[in-house]
Specification:
By secondary structure, this protein is an alpha+beta fold. Helices cover about 25% and strands about 25% of the residues. Strands 32-31-30-33-34-38-37-36-23-1-35 form an 11-stranded mixed β-sheet, sandwiched between helices. β25, α10 and β26 form a beta-alpha-beta unit. The radius of gyration is 32 Å and the shape is globular. Belongs to the argonaute family. Ago subfamily. It comes from Salvia divinorum. Keywords: Repressor, Ribonucleoprotein, RNA-binding, RNA-mediated gene silencing, Translation regulation.
Length: about 950
């Protein structure tokens, strides 16, 4: 059965500083975290009823002795200094916990290579940060200087300034971000400087470049952070050094969305239709336990080929031949070209123009009023074809097609298509490719580990890679070989299935077989209905065969499934209307209730094809009608494949409250009487241009112990692209109360997994969301111990086998591979865990960062806990790539996005015109019957 389907796709031990361990003493009336039971002088606060959050990992116990100094990678040694104390922190902010002192040892070792490249620097050096402002002087009237925004134009002006005064402005010792930030290895003069550039018409344009010093970045501060002497990361220094590392590729490559791509493509990467796959990379600097490291990963992106516009259209639209365009073909051509940038070939210029549209008339029929610039001749009517022939000596061949309307600086020009060439690096979004080309791009993106490893190594060696003259002139030395690190492989847990108490998972895929086993607890299905939406479409469902096969497969899994109470046949046309779907579902539920005097448990919906009305069905059923639905396609249902039917049964059983698989032994670090609740939280954001569309926050939590495989979910809309979960505290309080209602006791311990936040947002999660959680759930009588872990998927770190024989047949690292040395944070508590079997492409390990820990986990305990949880995902028979609380939160957040899209037509009528950002929360509220079941799997 399918496993993880979430796509988003040396051995040195780093001393991590000191962290206070729990003291053996009786609990106090007011609970204090175990690492703070021997208080030091500090502002302990505590005005509100919940216990105050204290700084973790910043104090030192008196018994711990001097702090070990981590390895350093700078060129000059630094004297050891004592770690900071809480009193030295000027801001009253909580800091992430430090890595436990004991070294993790669980599992067998494995030698790995990581795409981290060590960067050495001289801590005595300084990088000078300047602010730039470039404006054009306008010679006529009293208009002020015009500020420029075009990145390529700004670089051209700055390069001219450097060329005119190379002694004071050494170009190879500066790095420019293309906007307003300039970094230099030497001190530059400040003030205003005039730059004159010659235009294509031989006129001269004058610009004023204003340079102002912003900061002097002392690299010694970065060294202090890497060695653990200061707690706060010097982000301004890392940003400056990161820009230095990007300067060389920015001069030789095309920058697209923080990636760098070459201007040409390989012949085998031509995917047709005027597009090609371009191979580039993204890099970032990371402070790690071995020192500063450059993390570089490769990327593949579909771009339009830099062809003449006519040739591009011939490839992109097979019906286009340069002749007359009918209305349909004209619309396709306009859609393919609008918004693209081009260069013109009829005259010498470096300017780029944006295609605003097509002319209404064909090229041969275009005339305009020509005014002699010298004023000698009267205004005359001139044919566009004649003008290009006489002015530029260009003969227009394609006269029966429209011209391009090119816009620049609020002016429009009409230029024949044949004199325009598409510029390089114009992205073509993969979702707009046809199905075959999407598959081609998928194959190119999902490179096998040996191929990806070689590509990354080659890019590090290339002349247009991150290691150029500018990098060396800043005193940075980059190791071009990947970092060698010793990982460990954690053994899989034993599982419990229905017929077998202990199932040992020992194969390389960590997969268990349901062919001869049943689920742990099959939920009896007495009241269900079938809606066949394929009755009027193709392929049509063979309903009797499907029902029989599904019941037989359910029986083999230990799930008793009776005949459906009713079968309703209709067409896919019902999916196009929310009101028709709601009317249909309510009628089916009403008929089911009439037959059994009880509400339906589930409605199975068979669709002829994937349809955008799927979101309507889920919104209506889960927020308005209050019945669980399970969808599938008729062609899959007709095949009656055991694997497909088994997957369907696992989802249905989980949705109805059954248990598919459980761990035989209790989770590490916890006792059965502990009653632990696991929380997962995520936020789904809309596109930035949809400024009135809300973000969707989702929080899930376990409601059973010790099996921890049943979850309740909550969905909450909030302000556009707001990452902080605004109602995190009230939502968690609601989930804790739900746990209490179902189990008769509140959880003694809570482990929160937060998804989707970057390192720059850790402070928000730690000092705002965690504080809101503690204020909401804690009081004088109830104070659970809380651990907060961030799960990061969107990083660029990749693990490769040093010896291919150590891994699976696909060349990926084995499931359970964990790394917590060298490539991790210098002193904070984080690690990389690859918990799944990589079937295609190169596996990506998830980075888990522990921000707060009142449960005193050791590294081994937390790593094993997360890995074991990955075996409990309801709809898989192998461990998944992401800890289930986060995985489920992703699914719920996406479901909330479907709710938003489905309710959009209703919402547009309910939002007052004076409040464009408002949203009606009632559209997102789950039906009471579904609030505490896993409707989302």
């Amino acid at each position: 059965m399918d496993g993880d389907r979430l796509s988003r796709g040396g051995s040195d031990e780093r001393p991590s500083g000191q962290r206070l361990r729990p003291a053996a003493e009786a609990p106090q009336t007011k609970y204090r975290p175990p690492h703070l039971r021997n208080p030091q002088p500090s502002n302990a606060g505590g005005e509100h009823q919940a216990p105050p959050l204290q700084r973790q990992g910043v104090g030192r116990s008196s018994e711990s002795g001097p702090a070990p100094t981590p390895q350093r990678t700078s060129l000059l040694p630094i004297q050891r200094q004592p770690l900071w104390s809480p009193q030295q922190n000027s801001e009253n902010r909580i800091l992430p916990v430090r890595r436990p002192e004991s070294r993790a040892i669980a599992g067998r070792s494995i030698n790995l290579l990581v795409n981290h490249f060590l960067v050495k620097f001289n801590p005595r050096n300084t990088i000078y940060h300047y602010s730039l402002d470039i404006r054009q002087l306008v010679s006529y009237g009293k208009r002020p200087a015009r500020k420029l925004r075009n990145t390529s134009g700004l670089r051209l002006i700055l390069n001219k300034l450097f060329l005119d005064d190379q002694a004071r402005f050494p170009a190879n010792r500066t790095a420019y971000d293309g906007e307003k930030n300039l970094y230099s290895a030497v001190s530059l003069p400040t003030g205003q400087f005039r730059v004159e550039l010659s235009a294509e018409d031989f006129s001269t344009q004058t610009y004023v470049v204003s340079i102002k010093i912003m900061n002097e970045l002392k690299l010694s501060k970065l060294e202090d952070y890497l060695s653990g002497k200061v707690p706060y990361v010097p982000r301004d220094i890392l940003q400056g050094m990161d820009m230095v590392m990007k300067e060389n590729p920015s001069r030789y490559r095309i920058s697209i969305d923080r990636y760098f791509y070459p201007s040409s493509f390989r012949a085998e990467d031509d995917i047709g239709s005027g597009m090609a796959a371009y191979r580039g990379f993204q890099s970032t600097l990371r402070p790690t336990a071995q020192g500063l490291a450059l993390c570089l990963d490769c990327s593949v992106m579909a771009c339009r080929k830099p062809l003449p516009v006519v040739e591009f259209l011939k490839e992109h639209i097979p019906e286009f031949d340069g002749a007359y365009l009918n209305l349909y073909l004209r619309q396709r051509v306009a859609h393919a070209l609008k918004g693209l940038t081009v260069r013109v070939t009829h005259r010498r210029t470096k300017q780029q123009f944006t295609i605003a549209g097509l002319t209404g008339k064909s090229t041969r029929d275009l005339w305009f009023d020509f005014v002699d610039p010298k004023g000698n001749d009267p205004t005359v009517k001139v044919s566009l074809v004649q003008y290009f022939r006489e002015k530029y000596g260009k003969v227009t061949v394609y006269q029966d097609i429209p011209c391009l309307i090119l816009g620049r600086n609020n002016r429009t020009n009409h230029v024949p298509m044949e004199f325009c060439i598409l510029t390089e690096g114009q992205r073509y979004r993969r979702e707009f490719l046809d199905e075959s080309r999407q598959e081609t791009m998928k194959e190119k993106c999902l490179a096998r580990p040996p191929e990806r490893r070689k590509t990354i190594s080659d890019m590090m060696q290339d002349h247009d890679g991150p290691c150029g003259d500018v990098t060396r002139n800043f005193g940075l030395q980059v190791e071009k070989n990947m970092t060698s690190v010793e990982g460990r492989i954690i053994g899989p847990p034993d599982l419990k299935l229905g017929a077998v108490d202990i199932v040992r998972v020992e194969d390389e895929k960590r997969q268990w077989n349901l062919a001869e086993n049943s689920v742990v607890e099959g939920k009896r299905i007495d009241r269900w209905a079938l809606i066949d939406f394929s009755y009027l479409d193709f392929p049509k469902l063979r309903a009797k065969d499907f029902i029989s096969n599904l019941r037989n497969r359910s029986k083999s899994l230990g799930i008793v499934m009776e005949e459906p109470l009713l079968c309703h046949s209709t067409g896919m046309c019902d999916f196009s209307s929310v009101s028709r779907l709601e009317e249909l579902l309510r009628s089916v539920v009403h008929e089911g209730n009439r037959k059994c005097w009880n509400k339906l448990q589930i409605i199975i919906c068979v669709m002829a094809e994937k349809h955008h009305g799927y979101k309507y069905l889920k919104w209506v059923s889960e927020t308005r009608v209050g019945v669980v639905t399970q969808c599938c396609l008729s062609n899959h249902a007709n095949r009656g494949d055991d694997q497909f039917l088994g997957n369907l049964c696992l989802k249905i059983n989980a949705k109805l409250g059954g248990s598919n698989v459980e761990l035989t032994r209790r989770l590490p670090h916890f006792e059965e009487e502990d009653h632990v609740m696991f929380i997962g939280a995520d936020v789904n954001h809309p596109l930035s241009k949809k400024s009135t569309t809300p973000s969707i926050a989702a929080v899930v939590s376990t409601v059973n112990w010790p099996a921890v495989n049943r979850y309740a979910a909550r969905v909450s809309p909030q302000d556009h692209r707001t990452e902080k979960i605004l109602d995190f505290g009230p939502i968690c309080r609601d989930l804790v109360n739900t746990y209490h209602q179902l189990n008769g006791i509140k959880p003694k311990k809570i482990v929160v997994f937060r998804d989707g936040v970057s390192e720059g947002q850790f402070d928000m999660v730690l000092n705002e969301e965690l504080s809101a959680l503690k204020r909401a759930v804690s009081d004088d009588h109830y104070q659970p111990r809380i651990t907060l872990v961030v799960a990061q998927k969107r990083h660029k770190t990749r693990l490769f086998l040093e010896n291919l024989g150590d891994g699976s047949a696909t060349g990926n690292v084995p499931p359970g591979t964990v790394v917590d040395t060298k490539i991790v944070h210098p002193f904070e508590f984080d690690f990389y865990l690859c918990s799944h079997y990589g079937r295609i492409g190169t596996s990506k390990a998830v980075r888990y960062c522990v921000l707060w820990d009142e449960n005193s986990f050791s590294s081994d305990q937390l790593q094993e806990l997360i890995y074991n949880l990955c075996f409990t995902f309801a709809r898989s028979t192998r461990p998944v790539s992401l800890v289930p609380p986060v995985y489920y939160a992703d699914l719920v957040a996406y479901r909330g996005r479907l709710f938003q899209e489905a309710a959009k037509e209703f919402q547009s009528h309910s939002v007052p015109a004076s409040k464009p950002h408002a949203f009606d929360i009632s559209f997102y509220q789950l039906h009471p019957d579904l609030r505490n079941i896993m409707f989302f799997v």
